[in-house]
Design a protein that fits this description.
The chain has about 55 residues and is an all-alpha fold. It has one domain. The protein is built from 3 helices and no strands. Helix 1 runs antiparallel to helix 3. The longest helix is centred in the last third of the chain and has 22 residues. The chain starts with a helix and ends with a helix. The relative contact order is 0.16. Its main location: membrane. Keywords: Membrane, Transmembrane, Transmembrane helix. It is a multi-pass membrane protein. It is found in: Endomembrane system. Belongs to the EamA transporter family.
């Protein structure tokens, strides 16, 4: 049960990233290169947590 909490917590925290992505797509919000870099870093971190759980 505790293993799942390690994966679920970052996914719940990533909802804000999806909000930013959706606002860019649907509301045409302008994002700076810094925003895109941080989105990539967060998504990469979530992917690493998913892979770490597999090992």
């Amino acid at each position: 049960m505790a293993k799942n909490a390690v994966i679920v917590a970052p996914l719940i925290a990533s909802y804000s990233i999806f909000s930013v992505i959706l606002s860019r797509i649907f509301l045409k919000e302008k994002l700076s290169p810094r925003h895109y870099i941080m989105i990539i870093v967060v998504m990469f971190g979530i992917a690493l947590l998913g892979l770490a759980d597999e090992l």
